[in-house]
Amino acid sequence: MKTLTACAALTLAALAGAAPSVAAQATVPAWRDVVVYAADAAYPAALARRGVQGEAVVELTVDAEARERTATVRTSSRSAELDALAVTMAKRMDIAALDGASGLVRVRFLKDHSTTVATKTCADFNVDAAYQAATFPERRLREMPVMVESIGMLIYSLHRAGTQRSFPAVEPLIDATVAACARTPASGMLDVMRQEALKLIEE
Fold it and tell me: Can you give the pTM of this predicted structure?
């Protein structure tokens, strides 16, 4: 049995283990990496409410003489709306480049960060999980940004609380959290995850 601290490191490493995108390995240089959260004006509230989030990689080409920029989606977020927003944002960025130069702009649209996770309801999580399953069927729920953030926060809080037992396996914890959130949509998602983690620890 591993201690909580050791398991925390392994858990976070596993969660962060998603393979890099093809665009990230391209020969075109990376110019910008932007994160847009749901609280930002650039992220339409209607999309956030539907759980629409993802990452778009745009190739931006600068025509300095004509003062024009062309932007092409290299890797789609799988949302036409997010892709269009990413293209618009890339064209408006203040990037100094030689005439004819091209570079990649990665725009990540994320609903949650550490502050919002603390107040996120199960109902909101249920919407996000449904969107993830429908849009990215090849991905596991553990790859959702909110899951990575939540489990990291949970590991830290349990450690601070003095829980010295092994942290539960990630997959059973996620399955239990999803099931509990489906039953109690009005509950806080992080509270539900903590309750399910303690149940698994005690088994």
Answer: 0.79
